[in-house]
Amino acid sequence: MEQGTPEHDRTARMIAENVCSAYMRQASGELHPQAEQTLLTRLVKAIRPEVPGGTPRDIIDAANEALDAWEQQSGGVRGPRVSVLDRADGSVGMEATGAS
Length: 100
What we know:
Blueprint: H1 6-26, H2 35-47, H3 56-73, E1 81-86, E2 91-95
Antiparallel strand pairs: 1-2
Helix pairs in contact: 1-2, 2-3
């Protein structure tokens, strides 16, 4: 059973908001008005289970998996991936992706 605490929920939401904001600033492709809210919801859902005991790498991987899945469903939208996470303040660093 998942144990939820307001602190863990706030942390997951803060990180997800930072990821979503940074992603949206750098994304290319056609973004619909609801896209940001949909992506934010998916990021929170992916990140939340990793917050209590996960490492920063676990949270980064969860966020990037959510971005991958969202892009697959969104058609031609492409954007960066999370490369760095500061758990203390929820800030993230993003890195462009691309096939070589």
